[in-house]
Specification:
Blueprint lengths: L5 H10 L11 H31 L2 E7 L1 E3 L6 E11 L2 E4 L5 E6 L6 E2 L4 E5 L2 H43 L5 H40 L2 E3 L4 E6 L6 E2 L9 E4 L4 E8 L11 E6 L2 E13 L9 E8 L12 E7 L5 H5 L3 E5 L4 E3 L2 E8 L2 E6 L2 E5 L2 E4 L8 E4 L11 E3 L2
Parallel strand pairs: 1-24
Antiparallel strand pairs: 1-23, 2-17, 3-12, 3-16, 4-11, 5-7, 5-10, 6-9, 7-8, 9-11, 12-15, 13-14, 13-16, 14-15, 17-22, 18-19, 19-20, 21-22
Helix pairs in contact: 3-4
């Protein structure tokens, strides 16, 4: 093999070197494209993700109003107050003596009369005590009869002995013994009579106490609650406060707290309208029955009782929440016949995508709801869409407000 010349080898090695001065083709354009993509991603994060994160971290405060059921007589309303239906005549029927419930004779919802038996306590011990007292009284009366019979026999013996003693046939000591015995028997008769009277008194007392084991109602009314069940113990002094709760439903009134500064606008007999939370689409006529004689200093309010006009509505039950609208005077019969109107605050209605919507506050989150509106009513709009009365809606919602966004109400 012939050796490669030295100069030829040097040239071949030099040809294998990398030319680092030459720039790779297209590298500048790739960098520009990479930077453009990075900028687009940053813009997307800023304009899309950042607002969502900000909404999650910072809860927006909003003013809210409520959907209300408004009466056609709204123009005559002077004062509006809220309260509850209460009974002026009610009672918790309780036992007079401690014991255990043996029977309950009535059930919830049943109408009962004053003095009617409603329950009975276990009375085995009481009946046993009464039987024993009556037996003692009977025994005492038997002893009276025996003592009287013995006394009469002794008196006869005394009468027979007197002539014999006078004639000297019998010793005077025998007569003295018989007379002494007669005196003793008189005392025995008196003692037996006293014992019989005491036994009769004991029996009478036990009879009275046994009568207390039967529980009666002190008023006429309707049983609205059974406070105990058969077998449970009751006591008039402690423990369970009663057996039954009875309410005279005809005595139901609405009791509300009226601000002290508005008291001058009320008077006994002034007409009212009552709306129950349970039946927000119904209204009942009423009148001021009583204005309280005390002021709640902490709340600056006065209790006012409102009676229902005419027969009490069957739907009205104790403890129902109610709203009372005190009117300035008698109402036009045409307005009385009109139905309640569902009204939403005008400031709550906005346009979104060409439709009328409101933002409903549902557990601190917004629910954008499309609504159908009627004519204006006062400061609001009549609402054809049946949103429940009391539904909270955002007032003057900002344009950036979105469906599902978390918010909190301004204090």
């Amino acid at each position: 093999m012939n050796p490669v010349p030295q100069d030829q080898l040097s040239r071949d090695l030099a040809s294998l070197k990398i030319d680092r001065s030459a720039k790779p083709p297209g590298r500048g354009r790739g960098v520009v494209l990479w930077l453009a993509a990075l900028a687009a991603a940053g813009a997307a994060v800023y304009f899309i993700a950042v607002p969502k994160i900000r909404d999650q971290l910072v809860t927006q405060e909003v003013r809210t109003g409520e959907v209300a059921m408004v009466s056609p007589t709204q123009a005559q309303v002077q004062v509006t107050a809220t309260g509850y239906v209460v009974a002026e005549v009610s009672a918790k029927v309780a036992a007079k003596v401690p014991g255990r419930i043996a029977e309950i004779f009535v059930k919830e919802g049943e109408r009962i009369e004053k003095g009617q038996k409603v329950a009975r306590l276990e009375d085995v011990d009481g009946r046993s005590g009464l039987a024993a007292a009556r037996a003692r009284a009977a025994a005492a009366r038997s002893r009276i009869q025996i003592a009287r019979a013995t006394l009469e026999e002794t008196k006869l013996q005394v009468q027979r002995e007197k002539p014999l003693v006078e004639k000297g046939v019998t010793a005077k000591a025998t007569l003295d013994d018989l007379e002494a015995r007669a005196g003793s028997l008189k005392a025995s008769v008196a003692s037996a009579e006293a014992e019989a009277l005491a036994a009769d008194a004991d029996a009478k007392s036990l009879e009275t106490q046994l009568g207390s084991y039967v529980i009666t109602s002190p008023i006429s009314g309707t049983v609205i609650d059974k406070l105990v069940e058969v077998g449970e113990g009751v006591s008039p002094g402690f423990g369970t406060p009663g057996v039954l709760e009875v309410v005279d439903l005809e005595s139901l009134v609405v009791e509300v707290d009226v601000p002290e500064v508005r008291l001058s606008q009320l008077a006994v007999g002034r007409p009212c309208e009552v709306v129950l939370d349970a039946y927000p689409s119904d209204r009942w006529e009423g009148a001021v029955k009583e204005i309280g004689r005390r002021v709640n200093r902490s709340k600056a309010t006065v209790p006012v009782k409102v009676a229902f006009a005419g027969k009490r509505p069957e739907q009205v039950l104790p403890e129902m929440a109610a709203r009372v609208m005190f009117l300035s005077g008698d109402v036009d019969p045409k307005l009385k016949a009109g139905a309640l109107k569902r009204v939403v605050p005008g400031a709550a209605v906005v346009q979104r995508a060409g439709a009328d919507v409101v933002f409903v506050v549902d557990e601190e989150h917004l629910r954008m709801t499309t609504v159908k509106l009627g004519p204006p009513f006062g400061d609001g709009r009549e609402l054809v869409t049946e949103l429940p009365a009391g539904t909270k809606v955002v007032l003057d919602p900002p344009a950036a407000l979105a469906d599902g966004q978390k918010v909190k109400e301004k204090p």
